[in-house]
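Suppose you are handed a protein chain with no further information: no name, no annotation, nothing but its sequence. What can you learn? This example shows the usual starting point.
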Amino acid sequence: MNIRILELIEGAKKAQGLTVIIDVFRAFSLECYLFEKGARKIYPIGKIEDAFAMKKEHPDYVLLGERGGAKVEGCDFGNSPSQIRDFDVSGKTIIHTTSAGTQGIVNAAAAGAQEIITGSLVNADAVVRYIRSRNPEQVSIVAMGKAGLSSAAEDVLCAEYLKARLENKDLSGREDMSGGAALAQLREKAAAMKDGDGAHFFNPATQEIFPEEDFYMCTQCCRFDFVIRVGKDTEGRLTTAPVL
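A reasonable first move is to predict its three-dimensional structure. Written in structure tokens, the prediction is:
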């Protein structure tokens, strides 16, 4: 299994084989929570104009839109898992457009990636199990970063964890057949981001955009036992849905 770690939108454009698009803060952590709450299907959209056009065509769909971290005006919600926690999405179809995560899906699909799944800390071990079950020759792990333009520590951490586990190593490069050491390291490093790349979730001035609770929800390592796989609807539009 040839495993490559790529980054940002440019990395998504180079994806080959089974591709994992990572967005920890917050797109693909959020989608895990949405599917846990019973969402039926999610449409990952690149252009905000296309997202609004779909919402106009299907007013019953729930539109989640984020740019620069903030909710886009006119959307039902932004990209925050805690702010949608009390909203009933059971059986609903979601439209999701973000600065990084959904851009990665769209660009990897355009580049011809053989299969696309998403990844985040909350379902990292499920992603590892899924990739092992598929046993592809080529794996592209894409850490989408900030707006798909600059590196983000949480996405790189997730990517490095996936690669290490697939190679039966821990995050220090030592052999770790059970994965116990790697998971302990992952949890320690994720918690430490509170004082690093996750510090903006604890800024009192930005709680409306980056609620503190989002940090904790996005760093609950390996909470979910499913992966999110990208497919297409009958009209050829990209969709995401959970797969055990």
